[in-house]
Amino acid sequence: MRLDSKYFDRIRTRRKREQETEQAPPTCQWDGCDKKGVHRAPVGRNAEGQFFLFCFEHVKEYNKGYNYFSGLSDGEIARYQKEAVTGHRPTWTVGVNKAAKDSPLHSDIRSGAYSRVRDPFGFVSGAKGSGPRFPEQRKLKSLEAKAFDTMGLQASATSSEIKTRYKELVKKHHPDANGGDRGSEERFRAVIQAYQLLKQNGFC
């Protein structure tokens, strides 16, 4: 672009703002001191976010004698330290929440044997309000169905029925009880594997 172009005539520049007069820093708040107070020092425990302004010498002097817990008893200091662990937020002891007490075990939740469904009107559980969560019948996986079949049980068998049946089959097919019969030994291993699978998936 040429310097004698007509576009230069249309360019406007802003006037430089007059520089504001800089305020002089406050004086030191120490009694009898007239130096600049540029160093902050905390006011105290009940005045968080508030500061005194001192000069360098007096802020050092103030910090030497500063004690956040001044005026508190030993018991109040111990309580403050204990609450500081949780960030001074309220906490509750284990077992206060009744809903957690009635909830199933974590292994049962993972297996899908229980369902966390809210039932405030009692449509599922039969009683109004929140209460213990009841087992919900779910579709068995192929290995789970095979395990129930191996043990000769229905899918609706309870935990105690599974354990009782397992003990019976182990006694019946143990190699020592059958004189080392190979067929019985394979059946013995299959029963153990089936029981372990059911146990891992939360059926017993």
UniProtKB/TrEMBL annotation:
<keyword id="KW-0238">DNA-binding</keyword>
<protein>
    <submittedName>
        <fullName>Curved DNA-binding protein CbpA</fullName>
    </submittedName>
</protein>
<feature type="domain" description="J">
    <location>
        <begin position="146"/>
        <end position="203"/>
    </location>
</feature>
<dbReference type="InterPro" id="IPR036869">
    <property type="entry name" value="J_dom_sf"/>
</dbReference>
<dbReference type="InterPro" id="IPR050817">
    <property type="entry name" value="DjlA_DnaK_co-chaperone"/>
</dbReference>
<dbReference type="InterPro" id="IPR001623">
    <property type="entry name" value="DnaJ_domain"/>
</dbReference>
<dbReference type="GO" id="GO:0003677">
    <property type="term" value="F:DNA binding"/>
</dbReference>
<dbReference type="Pfam" id="PF00226">
    <property type="entry name" value="DnaJ"/>
</dbReference>
